[in-house]
Specification:
Largest sheet: none
Shape: flat
Order of helices and strands: HHHH
Strand content: under 5%
Length: about 80
Amino acid sequence: MIPVPKGTASLKDIANEPSERYKRLLNWEIEFCNKNKDMIYSRARFVYNSVVVKKDSLMVKNCCDFKALEAACAEYESEQRE
């Protein structure tokens, strides 16, 4: 839910991970996320809308300022294009 400027993230090559234990952990995490993708997106949308659209005071108090993060991300991307 935190915006990431285009071109700043990279894929993790799990196959080349030297630690078998860490490799298993990463695979379990991917499997969990893939199995629960719809629930994860639904909850993320709920949190975002509760903060940005509904401005639920408890959610606003306990969450990041998504609009400020989006603006900072857009500004960074704009600066990188110049």
